[in-house]
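#structure-requests
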Amino acid sequence: MKSTGFSFANDILGGIQGAERVVNGDARELTGVEVIDKRRLRVRLVSPRFDFPMLLAHPVAYVLKRDNVARWDGVWNAEPLGMVFTTEVELEALPVGAGPFKLTRFARVEDIDADPYGSRCVLARNEHYWDTPSHIDGVVINLSATSGAEASVIGRQRDEFSNGNLDFILIGDSLSEGIYINLPPRMSFLALNPSRPPFDDIHFRRALAKTAEVDEKLLTGIVSNPHRIVSASLASPGDNIRGYDFDPADGKQELEASLYQDDFLQSPIEFYTLDDSEASIGYLWSVFKAWREALGIEVKVNEFDIQSDVDDDSPHLLLPPLNELGMVEVHVWPHYPHPHAVLIKFASAFRDQDAPAEIAEIRRLIADAAADPDAAERRLKYSTIEQRILDQALAIPLLALETQARIMIQPWVHGLKFPKYHGSAFKDVWIDDTAPERALP
């Protein structure tokens, strides 16, 4: 929302009629949502969206009680990292949701895994859940927030698991045993603004695309296909999308064919980021180095300015208008497993109303694909859109990481599974009579 600088809600709910006006600060009421009665809402969309039911599973769309939310003010930010010491008064302000569990405690607990910023989340069964209530009484989740204590945290978790005090542990890929689970893939690409010189020249964009090499030593995870925007696990089988291979000779030829082969190279192209340290954007530095060596193009890295608002002392980014930026890095952790989730992030990289014609056309094509009732046709259209973006060199793929973690589960725990997108992993869990007896704290 405009008042908070939080645009994530628009990514989830932006398809609702009137949402754009609310996000832009032009309206306070969401005209596309109508209250039918105490238990029902009617939602009207700008256009048909096959993905809307999946988006409603995201936490941004969870149903909450208005007067309960009003009492949260200041509670969640009362402690470092937003953690809460739950007194009796604060317990009354805990969220009221509609899931299979209710939150009864979320507090910093300094002795958790020898982590001074550790916390404990306690969930109890929601007896009023609309579906069959959970088989278990609740869930206790111990959280670690100190990366420096990783080795000791893992060691203690292993000990607690071996002693039967933990039912499962999920600690990344550092376990040699356990069961692999797939986490949402991570994608990153540079979106180029075709309305800003020198990115308005397709040959210049192609020159960058053909010489953008990411140092593989800086990557973690499994790189599925760094030559495309959409991760392989989300793509349609056999779609044969083709991006750009690293080819400095071809890149040099493309640069020579562009309008900017001589005079423009006297000044660097600019890139903006929150943190310009090499540790933060190491893989981007490797791309910028490749451009310098292959094309003689320099990149000036700038940090976005941050200032405190005089009213609430909260930090706000001072962002230039997006269409004044020539190059933007886009990170994607899909809200649901589908190419649409990635392509729509590209289309909103330059989200101003006067979007370049090429980007506006891609937005139109994405909306057309989302409205197609035939799943196979939708997939075909999304593949065509991705290929169009790559053919025009409007995006330069950087990362396409298939992320995984290992989980160890005690033999008495049954039915634990992590949903492909948002939802409860614990709703269908049941524990047999070989488990040690425990009570919720």
